[in-house]
Write a structure and sequence with these properties.
Elements (H helix, E strand, L loop, with lengths): L1 H8 L4 H19 L2 E4 L1 H16 L11 E5 L26 H8 L3 E6 L11 E2 L3 E2 L15 H8 L5 E6 L5 H7 L2 E4 L23 E6 L2 H11 L25 E4 L10 H16 L3 E4 L5 H12 L5 H7 L6 H10 L3 H13 L3 H7 L7 H24 L7 E4 L20 H9 L3 E8 L14 H10 L6 E8 L4 H17 L10
Length: about 500
């Protein structure tokens, strides 16, 4: 990281770096509401101590003196992890989350914690305790969720590095909406140990902790630190490959712009194709491809997270005020199957096909059904891997695709756009490592809205495309399990090519 290197050389002190971060946060946060827990005094004290250690010639960690932010749901000693629940506002963590501890042990200094949706359940960052976070590219748009506050403050220049978590796109969608880099690692590499959230006992689709930053190199560095090093001394060992060892000219890359769920915006399609083309220019063999039965993966995802009929979410909510979006999800999860079947039929007759499809996965709360979902997930994982191996152009090493079907959409739209993030959710069901890299921005001629029809999701998508010019566009880079270094190598190549062509502008709203 460039900032860490400057601090190590004495070109800037840790205290100066922390003060610059605080000043920027204070300048932009009134418009963004991204940083919701501030620990400025403690950060200043830690920075002074860091400068003393450097002055004394002590060994320096790879993030020595670097100010960072972390997602509000991750424990930091002496601060609350509320998940947007007012009842938890005064419950302070007694110890650091293990991954927060690793970053701090590497020298990082936490200046604040960033906003989330209530119970981390939807792809916006808004809750009754902290309020709404705005996108630094357009304040009328969401930064995504559930790591939306994190992505917003990094994009706005208030923090060079952040820590998030991802069970259904919660790192990747915010990174895409805010035009920064981020990575969800392989399922099992950095398992999220938080015990508070939706259905924490289910292990079919598991949350992973991961980094967000403005550059791919900083994401790669943070991932190595979070992993405990390149060859960590843990059981079982989870070695991490070196992105510099990857020969892009030897890679086979699949790409797609339509997964069969919610069709992508014209701008998102163009950015995906550009990213694939940039890898082809580096010698990679690039082939158009279609992933198998993504709608089945979405049903597995929704079924797994609602397998308890919403009982866990209801317990955690208690008497807390409910965000309308979470209220809707909890109510549907606990609705009997026979009633959901009737409701789904009525919705189809009314032209609400997206909502009707969502209901197919909900309303179960029995162990036998959950077991069938786990079996279906294993079968789908085998089918997907076989397609990567056997389809024309394969066996594929990487996949290039969108992270979401739309650029950042308006606040509140996630209620109708539940499947907008299915392009990311697929890889939580599979457990594959995936990263986000900025590619472009929406051009004025690309904000032509689709024909909305009667379907609420299509109408919301049409509204999201209208007025989207200037918003950031990214690509999702997917690798096979345990091969994060291959995704990072491709992300770096795309980033370098975009920079050589002039790069992306900075967020315009702050």
């Amino acid at each position: 990281m460039a900032l860490a290197a400057s601090i190590a050389r004495g070109e800037v002190s840790a205290l100066e770096a922390v003060e610059a971060s605080i000043a920027r946060i204070e300048a932009v946060n009134p418009q963004l509401n991204a940083v919701v827990v501030k620990r400025y005094d403690a950060a200043r004290d830690e920075a002074r101590a860091a400068d003393e250690r450097r002055g004394g010639g002590e060994p320096l960690g790879p993030l020595h003196g670097v100010p960072i932010t972390i997602k509000e749901a991750l424990d930091l000693v002496g601060t609350p992890s509320t998940y947007g629940l007012p009842s938890r506002a005064h419950t302070l963590a007694a110890a650091d989350d293990p991954y927060v501890a690793r970053l701090r042990a590497a020298g990082a200094i936490v200046v604040g914690k960033t906003n989330v949706p209530q119970l981390l359940l939807y792809i916006e960052s808004d809750n009754p305790l902290y309020g709404r976070t705005n996108n630094p590219w357009n304040l009328e748009r969401t930064p995504g969720g559930s790591s939306g506050g994190q992505a917003a403050i990094i994009a706005a220049g208030g923090s060079p590095l952040g820590l998030g978590s991802d069970i259904g796109g919660s790192i990747r969608v915010p990174a895409a909406f805010c035009g920064i880099a981020g990575m969800k690692p392989t399922a099992g590499r950095l398992p999220d140990v938080a015990s508070f959230g939706v259905a924490p006992g289910q292990r079919a689709v598991v949350s992973q902790v991961g980094p967000l930053a403005r550059t791919v190199d900083d994401v790669a560095l943070a991932l190595e630190i979070l992993n405990g090093g390149r060859a960590p001394e843990v059981e079982p060992p989870r070695p991490l490959g070196d992105p510099a060892s990857v020969d892009l000219a030897k890679l086979r890359v699949a790409y797609y712009t339509d997964d069969g769920t919610l069709p992508v915006a014209q701008s998102v399609r163009r950015a995906t194709l550009e990213a694939a083309g940039l890898l082809a220019a580096r010698g990679a063999q690039v082939t158009e491809w279609k992933p198998p039965a993504v709608e089945q993966a979405v049903e597995i995802f929704l079924g797994a997270l609602s397998a308890d009929g919403g009982a866990g979410a209801k317990t955690f909510m208690g008497r807390n005020p409910r965000d309308p979006r979470i209220g809707q999800l909890i109510a549907l999860a606990g609705t009997p199957r026979w009633l959901l079947g009737a409701l789904g039929g009525a919705l189809r007759l009314l032209g609400q096909r997206s909502q009707a499809a969502t209901l197919r996965s909900l309303g179960y709360s029995d162990t036998a059904h959950y077991w069938r979902l786990v079996e279906a997930q294993a079968a789908y994982q085998r089918r997907f891997a076989q397609a990567l191996d056997d389809d024309p152009g394969g066996p594929f090493d990487l996949i290039i695709c969108p992270a979401a079907s739309l650029p950042a959409f308006q606040h509140g739209a996630s209620r109708d756009l539940l499947t907008a993030g299915a392009y990311a959710t697929l890889y939580n069901v599979l457990g594959y490592p995936t990263g986000i890299v900025p590619v472009s921005v929406v051009r004025p001629g690309e904000e032509q809205p689709r024909k909305p029809g009667r379907d609420a999701a299509q109408r919301a998508a049409s509204r999201a495309e209208t007025g989207s010019a200037g918003l950031p566009l990214t690509a999702q880079v997917v690798a096979r399990p345990w091969r994060e270094h291959m995704a990072l190598a491709a992300m770096r190549a795309i980033e370098e090519a975009v920079a050589a062509s002039g790069g992306l502008p900075k967020p315009s709203a702050v």
